[in-house]
Amino acid sequence: MNMQNLMAQAQKIQREITQKKEELEKMEFTGKSEWVEVVFTGAKVLKSVKIIKEGTIGEDDKEILEDMFQIAVKDAFVKITDAMSNKLGQYAGALDGLM
Predict the structure, then answer these.
(1) 3 state SS of 36
(2) CATH number of 3-98
């Protein structure tokens, strides 16, 4: 493979990766716990927070609510990471073949 073909292939892969990243950044990912639902973009920008627990939340529940918020955020971030791996994982070894 000559150097010109190699560079053209690398640039094509770079454009595809950029396009996939942009698609992911526009997607929304919902994380949930028993009491909380959060929505993030693929760029990890928080779009919304909802308390989904039925009934009232008392002063004693404050610490539990904080924990539930953390669980929901972690859930959303795991989904974002998984989506990135699924969309971009195919490119992980692509550049190895070019070098």
Answers:
(1) strand
(2) 3.30.1310.10
Distances in Å between the Cα of 10 and the Cα atoms of 13, 21, 89, 90, 96 are: 5, 16, 16, 14, 10
Check if the beta carbon of residue 39 is closer than 8 Å to that of residue 47.
Answer: yes
End-to-end CA distance of the chain: 11
**Which ranges constitute the DSSP H helices of the chain?**
3-26, 62-88
pLDDT for the residue 59: 86
Task: Please write the tens of the pLDDT for every residue from 19-52.
Answer: 999 999 999 999 999 999 999 999 999 999 999 9
Residue 99 predicted with pLDDT over 70: no
